[in-house]
Amino acid sequence: MTTVLVTGGAGFIGSQLGERLLAEGHRVVSVDDLTTGKIANLVEARGYGKEFSFFNMDVRADGLASLFERHRPEVVFHLAAQAGVRPSLDDPVHDASVNIMGLLNVLEASVHVGARKVIYAASGGTMYGEPKRLPTKETAAQGSRPLSPYGVSKKVGLDYLSYYQRYRGLDYTAVALANVYGPRQDPTGEAGVVAIFTAKMLTGEAPMIFGDGNQTRDFIFIDDTVHAFVQAMDRGSGKLVNIGTGLETSVNHIYRLIADLTGFAGEPEHGPQPAGELRRMALDISAA
Fold first, then answer.
1. One of 150, 164, 172, 255 is an active-site residue; which one?
2. Torsion angles phi and psi, residue 15, rounded to 5
3. CATH for 3-180+219-243, options being 3.90.870.10, 3.20.20.150, 3.40.50.720, 3.40.1080.10
4. pTM as predicted
5. Is position 150 annotated as part of the catalytic site?
6. pLDDT tens for residues 214-261?
């Protein structure tokens, strides 16, 4: 039985990844400071008894090293992050503290206990900047200029992963995620347009579309995302791998689809396009 550790383990993606890993017979250690994660997301995982354990802890905390020593994970899934574009614009220092220093704390702890691999949640929607070609290949990261501190911090993480593989012997795979949607996504956050639109329409409220709505994203379902993380346990050594659909879908199209499904007949509200947001994005998934 493999012991794995999931940071951000009470979050939208992390909690469902934990359930999949438990179902496949792994022992799962979940770490989350509950800034955005929720205890309610762990109900199913807790049904596995002693095979699952949860720790309320910030990934920057000094106590992370002793937690790693106690449980000695073979594989670490690092999903914990400051994951918002707009918060990163308001407070780049906090973004870097969580996304860079937090990553370094995880990497140091992993090396110390002899973990085999770290699987890192990269951001396919931000770290490539405004793409020159669509769909965007992983090689575009080398010369990209992210439009937000969040994109910058997630891109910097790739260089640290490469360093730790080369000089500390810690293997990695970085999965560059498209826009993930599905159950447990927070409809009150800034990200997650599918969850936001659905929650608003179901209560009869008009969702807000920022900009003209013709901006595009690559949307991928949560189950496909979780499957990619699990596959990365034994694949993609030392690689950045895009996880998406390769398709551009506009915000306006998403609005119409959800309006049809929910029976919402109202018109959207409109607001200004926020800073740091890309105009178009779709990921080339041929490497996956």
1. 150
2. -70, -40
3. 3.40.50.720
4. 0.97
5. yes
6. 999 999 999 999 999 999 999 999 999 999 999 999 999 999 999 999
